[in-house]
Amino acid sequence: MMEPDAHTLLARHRASSSRNGDTSAMPGPGPERSTREPRSKAGLLAFLFVLALVGWMGSGYLGGSDPQPIAETPREKAVEPFTVEAFRSTARAITQFVSSEGQAMPDRQTPVRAKTGGTIEEIVARKGQFLDEGDVIARIALADRTAQVAQAEAELSRRQGEFDRIQGLAERGYSTRAELESAEAELAVARAGLASIRQTQGDVEIRAPISGVLENFDLDLGEFIEASAEVGTQIDNDPLTVEVQVAQQNIGRVKLGQSAEVNFITGASREGEVTYVATNANTATRTFPVEITIPNPERDIPAGISAEVRIPVGETPAHFLSAAILALGPNGELGVKAVDETSHVKFYPAQLVRAETDGIWVNGLPDEIRIISVGQGFVSDGEAVRAVAPKAGPAGDARPGDAPEPAEVPGLAGDPADGAEATEGAGRMIASSTPEAGAMDLDAITGLDPGDLAAELSTGGVPNRDAVRMAQQALNALGYEAGTPDGLVGQSTRDAIRAFQADKGLEATGDLSAAFAGALIQAIGAGGLRP
């Protein structure tokens, strides 16, 4: 048996040492021992790091300090309700109208004809003249009428003699019955011919068939016309008839005998009566023809002009407000946002009743309501809000019962053409030179008569720019912010006027009225200027 060599003995010793856990006694080479020692140190360091991390995390639960408060979210911070401006509005009964446009038509339009032919020898009437029924318009020459009458009389005499002769022979039996009947027929023809000629003598005068204005009349002396020729037209425009087309959804509210307001394009207005309501709609437009008769005794309204008809069909409660207050609901319907008793926003759909120059009438709202005038675009239905009164009068807080007519509106902002032409009276009262924006002659205002200032502020419905500029300067001097004195009645000027009127106990309309002018002159004269 062979003895183990040195390498075999060394391997056995290493295996025995590893089983006993004694790595240090291993007599192996130096490099292998140095590679194992760093690995043991790295594991120890990792273990210590993990232990320190666990201890640091656990210190948060074992420490006695109070936890830091968690930051509030934006929704939790918004505890204060949104502030809006709202005004109270009370519904008022207004008249509903069915409106349409049409054309004024004359009562009668009749052609003028000549009953007999001939040469025109005299023209009595002229075109455009009003004629009563039976008035002479023109005459036809009678030069050949006398000869025709003499010839017809001679023919009648001859036929009468021939009839008498044949009748005598027939009585004695010398003539037949047929000859007698023939002579009698010829006598009748002669009589008819004479009567026809004598009648044409009366028809040589062309007369007016009706009472009315003679139109389309163009006859000349010596002109030959034929029998039944049309020489002109007569128009009777008393009464006038306006025909309009009413939509099928409104025709049920229009009845015979209803009164109607008719406004003509000339500016004239008349009261009329519904005299015809069609029972069959136009197949193309699905509208019903309706006729309104308007008395025109002076015949000052011509026929053929355009007219707007408004037929009152009942009353409905409605609110008067600015169109800027309207908002869209969740389903896209038009309405207003209001504040209820619990200070929450509520959306009410609204229907337009009619429009005025400075606002609209709407219904479908409660009789008493607080309408949001500022901030309605930033709140939604059901949201809690804090409602405050408007600062300078809401945009919709007008006087609903007295909606102004267009001519009474002093002027609209943004139109530089309004008031550009100064009237002659304005030139006498107010200097035409434009003062500087900051300069103002108080004596020029206090020396004016309130009536004159009011007249100049709204001359003919259009504000005089010099007078408005002076009023703006006075309001600014009194502490009311009327904006730049530019002579234009803008929103700032109207707000300043409303605030001034409210302070003076006047009706806060924002209009340049006589009462406003008097109060303004009195305030300047009293020296009530604010610093």
UniProtKB/TrEMBL annotation:
Give the transmembrane ranges: 42-62
Q: Which domain of life is it from?
A: Bacteria
Task: Give the matching InterPro entries.
Answer: Beta-barrel_RND_2, Peptidoglycan-bd-like, PGBD-like_sf, PGBDSf, RND_pump_MFP
- What UniProt keywords are attached to this protein's entry? Membrane, Transmembrane, Transmembrane helix
Q: Where is this region: Disordered?
A: 1-38, 391-422
Q: Which SUPFAM superfamilies match?
A: HlyD-like secretion proteins (SSF111369), PGBD-like (SSF47090)
Every copy of the CusB-like beta-barrel domain together lies at 242-311
Q: Which residues form the Peptidoglycan binding-like domain?
A: 465-519
Q: Does the keyword Metal-binding apply?
A: no
Q: Which family does it belong to?
A: Belongs to the membrane fusion protein (MFP) (TC 8.A.1) family.
Name of the featured protein: Efflux RND transporter periplasmic adaptor subunit
The source organism is: Fulvimarina uroteuthidis
